[in-house]
Amino acid sequence: MTWRRGCALIVAGVALSVAAGGSGISGAQPVTPPPTTPPPFATPNTDSCPFAVSPAPAIDLSEVPAPGATVPPPVPVPASPVGGDKLGGCGIILPDAAPPLPADIVASGWVIADAESGDVLAAKDPHGRYRPASTIKVLLALVALEELDLDTAVTATAEDANIEGSSAGIGKGGVYTNHQLLQGLLMASGNDAAHTLARQLGGVEVAVSKMNALAADLGALDTRAATPSGLDGPGMSSSPYDQAVIFAAALQNPTFASLIRTESVDFPGFPKDPAIPGDEDRPGFVLANDNRLLYNYDGALGGKTGFTDDARHTYVGAAERGGRTLVVTLMGGEAQPLRPWNQAARLLDYGFALPVSASIGSLHATEDVTPSVTKTPSAAELGPVSAGDASPGNDSSAMRRVAVGVLGSATVLALVLGAVALNQRRRRYGRQRR
Asked: What's the structural domain count of the chain?
């Protein structure tokens, strides 16, 4: 602390004491501000469809594109609600004669659905666009399970180990099977495991492309992954409905189902780094599942947690009771007054209490679903398209219109091709109505 700053702090302290009625000399009582009570959390009102086209604006720089890159336009909105007309609503949607919802559900959007029949039992803003955070790892896991040999051993790189965000504990030079990487991905939400798996799938961009192709094939038309791990990136989007579609499909894979319900496993360590003086070998350790629903809810089958500053809390999970399996998804949530898994538990209880015949829609998209656009924002609504466009005095309106047109057309074409392949993928993942 400099002499000038020290003097300034002393003078400020004396002035504060005098203003509070003290003498300004040593021993005067400090001023204690009155306690404040934070306002109670309330379930966000989405009746006006604020997220019908895209998630809320980012609060940080996580979605600023790399220099020279562009921000993709929002995912096209289908002409009719996927899963049924009732699912086009943006507020709370309940079946006829349904009882009141449980208290303290503060997620902006959520869905309760029957994983076997595909019936959607209740929802709030089911097709609202939100950031998925780490729940998108379910999509990455499905791609990896489809393409990678689970027994293949992979040596982790420094880039794998140093990836931003949550970590499974992978280290440079560590050797891991793909099965162990999936354990780290789904049990501990490891971004390091996500990067290592993506590297085997052809790199981050290729892995993300494969994830998006699978989402389209499954009928998850609100979804666009921007990263394999769920870290926020330009254009990231999903919805409570899509999360239920993806998770219900994933439950059909026995390996995935086994991974998410595993409570703990032995996980490999990694060798010392010769480039670091005094570094030591890291021993193996016990990797625990971070999904609290698994330990605290009767019949829980597992799930996936997620959080980023922009996405807030997200969650997908499932439970089985009396031969019935329900899935629950929450997006845009908070951890108060209850943790997301606890809110999910209340929604699951609500779903199990509803009659088996209760339904407001279906996870099984109809055959005639097409991604024709009902609303796509203009270039002006999109804001800066590239890092270069943000510079002062750069008139890029024409470039924006071209970018929006080209990217929008490409997106629509990709979704049309995905719709063509939808029936084949449904059969593959056992998504027909039973």
From this structure: 1
Q: Is 304 a catalytic residue?
A: no
Say if 73 falls within a structural domain: no
Whether the CB-CB separation of 112 and 179 falls below 8 Å is answered with no
pLDDT along the chain (434 residues), means of 10: 43 42 45 58 86 96 91 95 97 96 96 98 98 98 98 98 96 98 98 98 98 98 98 97 98 98 98 94 98 97 97 98 97 94 98 97 71 34 34 35 42 44 46 34
Assess whether 23 carries a catalytic annotation. Answer: no
| CATH code (residue 140) | 3.40.710.10
The reply to whether 134 belongs to the active site is yes
Rounded to 10 deg, the angle between the 137-147 and 191-200 helix axes is 40
- Residue in 245, 221, 230, 218 with CA at minimum distance from that of residue 192: 230
Catalytic residue (one of 134, 238, 362, 386): 134
* Annotated catalytic residue, options 137, 172, 210, 304: 137
**Contact call for residues 202 and 230 (beta carbons, < 8 A):** no
Is the Cβ–Cβ distance between 105 and 422 less than 8 Å? Answer: no
Phi-psi region of 313 (alpha: psi -120 to 50; beta: other; left: phi over 0): beta
Partners of 262 in the β-ladder: none
Cα distance between residue 65 and residue 235, in whole Å: 10
Report whether 340 contacts 66 (CB < 8 A): no
Residue 230's closest CA among 140, 125, 335, 110? 140
Catalytic residue, candidates 189, 229, 237, 239:
189
In a domain, 168, yes or no: yes
Overall pTM surpassing 0.85 (yes/no)? no
